[in-house]
Amino acid sequence: MNPGADLAALAQGLRDSRGVAHKRDIAAVVSTLGIADPQAVIAVGDDCAAIPDGDGYLLLAIEGFLNEFVSAEPYFAGWCGVMVNASDIYAMGGRPLAVVDALWSDGAERGKPVLEGLAAAARTYGVPVVGGHSNARCDRAQFSVAILGRARKLLSSFEARPGDVLLAVTDLRGGYREHFSNWDASSGSDARRLRGDLELLPQIAEAGLCRAAKDISQAGLLGTLLMLLECSCIGATVEPGRVPMPPDVSAERWLLHTFPSYGFLLAVPPANVAAVMSRFAARDLACAAIGMCEERRQLRLRDGGEEVLAWDFQHSALIGCGPAISTSPAPEPETSHA
Length: 338
Prior knowledge:
By secondary structure, this protein is α+β, with helices and mostly antiparallel strands. Helices cover 35% and strands 30% of the residues. The relative contact order is 0.19.
């Protein structure tokens, strides 16, 4: 199959993906609450709410987990309660302080593995569980975790600028969880290494090397990038072939569906790219420049001389946290020769 056809399928897959559909649901919630104001003191659309506090920011976030995931992987779901929330804090240049959880289960024994995973991750990541809510008399397992952190200097989804280089960084020392596209390079790993790898994000923020960052979420790398671009009111051209990925994993699975335990997108001024990449390389984390931020409010995918339009923000919003625009479906991909 020629490169252009691959890109067209990837672009269509992005628009059709379950992860992106879940993110599009955010727009209705934001609209109903009336909180879509990028100029607000506490802008909505980042990985965490950043609340000005003295010489820094308090960071507040929450994650809820799909019932099917909690039922199939209760221990790992508990682990993820800390892991994904901590990742959100670090993505914004912060450090986590504590978590609280809410767990519903059909009996205490059914909820126990979730709590065991939560406790194990809390020890590994050094983030204490300080309270929460439980109900052992529910008809199914449901689970959510909230986190509090603090940042001296933010990495925000609203600060990427045209001309910034997009970096993708991932810990490839892991594997998929059975039946799901969660790339686990966390559970069973050395605690000091995990904490040191994550500490790079606030260090980079405090050194002023990076403008914006986002934790790669259930929407995959490309879906996460859409959220970053929408909030910053910009676009980008990305070369999927440059994205670090494990061998024998399809580009579609990795770019559209994979939720890595350690995975971030960064928007970095060109003069700082080498310095940022060297920090990740020193810890054996895979990092590569995958594209460039641009003024035109589109996401375009490129491979050699082939290029396709994957998303046009002038015609289609995603999470509704950027400037007010239409929410009509994204246009069909166009193929061109660059």
